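Posting for a labmate who doesn't have an account.
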Amino acid sequence: ERFKSYNAAGRDLDMTLGQIKKYRQLDKLAPNIQRDVLAGKAAGRSLADLIRVARIQDPSAQHAAFDALLQAPKRALCPRPQKAAASPPAEPINVRVVAYFNAKRFVTARLDAQRALDEVEAFVEQLNSKLAASSSRWTRDKIAAALDRYLRKRSLLSVFECEISETTIGERSFYQCCLERDDDVWQKRRSYDGFCILVAHPELSLTAEECYRLYFAKDMVEKDFQVIKSVVKLRPVWHRSDAKVRAHVTICMLALLLERTLRRRLQGKHTASTALEILSSCRLNQYRASGDSSVYTTTQLTPEQRNILRHLRLPHLADDDELAERITPR
């Protein structure tokens, strides 16, 4: 046989599995009819007509139907649409290309690759265990088809060479399979792990690093909503009027602006959520004296709290004298 499986034949003839299944129905034709078809006597007849003849089980009726098909006038072939005249080649498009290496993607790709190799090894070991069983009825073609399906599904068909050998133990013979990896093909695939390419407008005047950061900032809107839901902790509020919706959105945007201002002024010393948590124990205290007089003071701050206020340029919030001047007792 020329091919080990129908899938292998389809790959060689550039045919899909569905097309191969249709042509396999012609095996039901009588041997002499098959020879006539191969000799070209059925030229001009469609595959569907030949399949209808092949489905006739009675040999004499099948021969009569084939003779009638040959005597029938050939079907006029539909003319193929003329291809449009090739348009002149467009002018080359100038783009800016930025190549970068992503260490996280590199590690992920290498781990996925190793996991794929481990899965292939486990699959072969499990398949050999089935083949070695006394109840095994696997043929060489069935084994080759199973290996082909598994490797093709994982895009590893060009990486491994399949070898199926017959093993004899005592009076019993059975098949065993082995996959040998092509290291050159495998290393060529791994040489691109972690590398990515960005395509930008040629007039973009950003540096390569700035292009990289701009690309990964494209999901800023989603991150903003995440901040609103986590740091700001605005609970869901249901509105039924446009004015209330606008007010709610305005509050969310002001809260987000406050979070970004905190993050920028802290300069990486603390995150906004951490700073707010550290300052959560700060309180404005009111002491009422005799009569209607009141005095406002703040909770005594820790050194860390004072440092945060200094970075936020708000040290006056902890100054009792300044608070006394700005707050009117009531």
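Reply:
Got it, the structure tokens are right above this. The first strand starts at residue 96 and ends at 101.
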